[in-house]
Amino acid sequence: MIATATATPALVDVLTASKQASRSLATLTANRKNAALEAIAAELEIGGDRVLAANALDLANGRENGLSAGLLDRLRLDDARLAALTAAVRDIIALPDPVGVVVRGSTLPNGVRLSQVRVPFGVVGAIYEARPNVTIDIAALALKSGNAAVLRGGSAAENTNRGLVALIQQALESVGLPASAVQTIDEFGRAGATELMGARGLVDVLIPRGSADLIQTVVRESTVPVIETGAGVVHIVLDATADESMAVDIVHNAKVQRPSVCNAVETVLVHRDAAARLLPPVLTALRASGVVVRGDERARAIDAALEVATEEDFATEHMALELSIAVVDDLDAAFEHIRRFSTQHTESIITADMANAERFLAEVDSAVVMVNASTRFSDGGEFGFGAEVGISTQKLHARGPMGLPELTSTKWIVRGAGQVRD
Amino acid sequence: MIATATATPALVDVLTASKQASRSLATLTANRKNAALEAIAAELEIGGDRVLAANALDLANGRENGLSAGLLDRLRLDDARLAALTAAVRDIIALPDPVGVVVRGSTLPNGVRLSQVRVPFGVVGAIYEARPNVTIDIAALALKSGNAAVLRGGSAAENTNRGLVALIQQALESVGLPASAVQTIDEFGRAGATELMGARGLVDVLIPRGSADLIQTVVRESTVPVIETGAGVVHIVLDATADESMAVDIVHNAKVQRPSVCNAVETVLVHRDAAARLLPPVLTALRASGVVVRGDERARAIDAALEVATEEDFATEHMALELSIAVVDDLDAAFEHIRRFSTQHTESIITADMANAERFLAEVDSAVVMVNASTRFSDGGEFGFGAEVGISTQKLHARGPMGLPELTSTKWIVRGAGQVRD
To answer: How many Å apart are CA A211 and CA A205, to the nearest integer?
Structure first.
């Protein structure tokens, strides 16, 4: 029974078409889905120029509207980035089809046979900001998992997204699939995003991608179930027994190797008994790579050159070469700090103490908890999932790095021979 | 980072205490959780009289407030029902602990070891109506799965629930666990329910139990993730090739064996080529058990004694000895009817045609789809899960009958020896 709060007739039509398309997609073989993905890759190669022209328009508008250099860079497509997108689609072709996988099953005492099987959600909605790569990414992941996709990108990328969706739809039709399997609702503006969030019954799951603000708005306003892929205020704890070179290498790697991503470390908590030993070499390594390091009072007592770390610093995902340090009395104090400031994405402890390692793994309530490893490993690609669906910071459905199976639901299949219940 | 919309300081205190209690529960061994459950069972045996006295008060108030006989019956506890509740708690003791189960794992090429492990959600909230058994049920299931429980029962059962929670808390303290592991917020009234739905960050998941209205309100208003355990407008399709005695037995069993439950059939769709053959014996059997049967025009052309089935009848979960029948042209017409009226809970087809059976299983988008079996098998107990957490009609997290593992989340445990990312 479809109960939806959407009001604009035209948008309801779009979503109804998505729902219809999702029915054809649900029963497609992997071969046919892969053929559709290959057609998209081929169209990206053939039609790239048109997409780049549309992107040039968005970039010109963006410059006129005073978009920051960072946003313009995210918005920008070029030959290399298009080639990377095309390669990403082909990577998804190579992944196993999650649909139809039997999760578990049994035969009841009366002979009734049960199996729980992976099925597509149906319609996956995505709300995101000016990153045209998400358009291709979500569309390809949705198709591979048998879902229709409804995309609401940022208005700054409107022309680029329209071009990309036109190209995807052409590819879909070329292999005999409905164009409505992938649709954009950018033309409906903000009202469209609001209605998408209220379209429970037509849209099965909604994935927000972008700033913490965007994600929180969707979580708060959506009646469609949301998969929250959250920001990472990621912590590394340097325990009293932490090995010095391990501490230096891991903190440096976790901050410097790619500072703009959600699994980069934001805060280091160092045990008071190890602070004088570990902070100097850690700070030397970080500063050599240009990291701006801030500290609480106790950290600044060890290194007076540290800038002052405020409460806000400890609560911020910098996504830049910035890091905050606090000295803690013990593991419990570290846990208390993490509970207060963590986004429950990823935390790691560097320690030689087995009991402390086990306590950390058991008691820190984050999607990914680590011992003696860089937080940068908290990633679908590194975990071997092959595709980057996002990293869930919620506890329902999926938690941590998500692969294709996380874009499916399940269904119970029951086969009998006339059995009834006593 | 805890971001919550709750406003009443006292309620925030209650929920904060739940969150704190959840931390102690999360790392308890199965032995300690089972000891707590056994203490609850023992308290139910010892303190039953006090609970019955509180229940008598609620019943008297209910009669005064004009509660229906059905509601009064749901509200009523007696020695037999208390004994059944006690037995249910002991059944849960016998189930395996879902926490700590390793779901999957691997070792990365660089030697980093991954395992995905079941962990409790943290705090499970329940909003339900005047069924005191839910108080014990949810509390016991939550404890077994390592979760704290916050309960908001109906005001009609306020005294009974207060008595039950006091008894549970006494049991918890007797085994050294925090009383705040199970709390009621009934004293905060409707405002309390509203705040519970907004307590994202303090409450990890919310389970509504009761009428379709209650469930829809929670789904609409909650920012806390909800597990929707829905109503069942359940269909049985009698295909052209359906065996007569199978059709009669299964329809009769699915309607009559226990009409007041969500997996009882509400609508029979019969293929036009089989309607004249199957309807007469099916109707005879149903009427012999006192079922009021309604039909569409084509069904009434075969049996003029059928009452008229309206659109509303087809959309209603009667939970009573009432059933609607429609004649359909083919499988596609049956699918169309199901898409329109089903709550996506459970549907079954009776057929001898293998191709139609497979189409039905593949194309009907419900939590449980069956061939030649009674819809009454759509049940956690029948599926061998041991406990009845409810039947999810949503696609996220859990779908269909839920067992204890569905009351848990997962966490990724990563063990390294100093590895960093290249």
So the answer is: 19
Domain spans of chain B, in order of start: 9-227+402-415, 234-377
**pLDDT-wise least confident of A120-129, A130-139, A288-297, B281-290:** A130-139
Question: Which architecture, in CATH terms, is A9-229?
Answer: 3-Layer(aba) Sandwich (3.40)
Q: Does domain B9-227+402-415 have CATH number 3.90.1150.10?
A: no
CA–CA min distance A357, chain B (Å): 9
User: Quick check: A362 and B26 CB within 8 A?
Assistant: yes
Same fold, B9-227+402-415 and B234-377: no
Asked if A378 and B220 come within 8 Å (Cβ–Cβ), the reply is no
| Alpha carbon distance B393, A3 (integer Å) | 14
Which residue from B minimizes the CA distance to A24?
A: B363
Q: What is the ipTM of this complex?
A: 0.92
Whose CA is closest to B123, among B177, B196, B187?
B196
Distance between CA A292 and CA A283 in Å, rounded?
Answer: 10
For the segment B94-118, what is each residue's pLDDT rounded down to a tens digit?
Answer: 999 999 999 999 999 999 999 999 9
- Write b or e for each residue in A230-265: b if 16 or more Cβ atoms lie within 10 A of its Cβ, otherwise e: bbbbbbbbbbbebbeebbbbbbbbbbbeebebbbbb
Closest-CA residue of A relative to B391 is A412
Q: Which helix (H) or strand (E) holds B293?
A: strand B292-295
Choose the CATH number for B234-377 among 3.40.50.2020, 3.20.20.70, 1.10.1060.10, 3.40.309.10: 3.40.309.10
CA distance B413 to chain A (A): 5
In chain A, the residue whose alpha carbon lies closest to the alpha carbon of B243 is A418
Q: Name the B residues in 189-228 with CB < 8 Å from any A CB.
A: 200, 204-205, 216, 219-220, 223, 225, 227
Q: pLDDT tens digits, residue range A175-193? A: 999 999 999 999 999 999 9
| Mean pLDDT to the nearest integer, A203-215 | 90
The minimal CB distance from B371 to the residues A106, A252, A416 is found for: A416
